[in-house]
Amino acid sequence: MDLSDIATAPPGPLAAPDTPDTPGEPDALDALAGRLRALPPSCGPVRLVAVDGHAGSGKTTFAGRLAAALGGAPVLHTDDLATHEELFAWTGRLREQVLVPFARGAAARYAAYDWVERRFAADRRRLAPAPVVLIEGVGTGRRSLRAHLARLLWMEVPDAESWRRGQLRDGPELSTFWDGWLPAERAHFAVDPSRPYAETLVVQRKEGYELLAGPAVAARTSPRPHTA
Length: 228
What we know:
By secondary structure, this protein is α/β, with parallel strands linked by helices. Helix content is 33%, strand content 21%.
């Protein structure tokens, strides 16, 4: 796809089942934070937690609030790893610059993409191997990363509603970007869906967030057919 006219950022493993939280419950994120801290490390000493969902579903906002509930956990945005030409082909950069250092207990250092200058920054950002590190972005629950995740969270907003929100947020000046983004996202999830592997679904209500057990939990707890 041709995104040459766009010079801005794109729209924004197995654990115990979650007990659904009451919408608006003040400590819903604190309870989730506690469960995440209790998980075994998934990448070296790090519990890597992915926040996935369609573009416009509120991943960045939720990740920021969850990071605060975790006491200031680091957040990696895949917008910093993607490029105009490689909206979803950032797995190699993530592996080399983040996962490999984390696996040996070292800090990650990655070059962030500049969506205005259309190049990666010369200086590298440091990402500490904290007890919990959040990675947010469309496709963070992809199959090539799931073995490195302590938990996969999915923002439970239908694609059409997410995209409507995102386009309303970005305004008409980014319509060309969305023209390229929508088929790219559809194509990615068609061959590499994330939602079926999510342990937690995040539903945003007027009163706050509601956290529900995801499809991965249901798949583990459903009765297996008996074969003689």
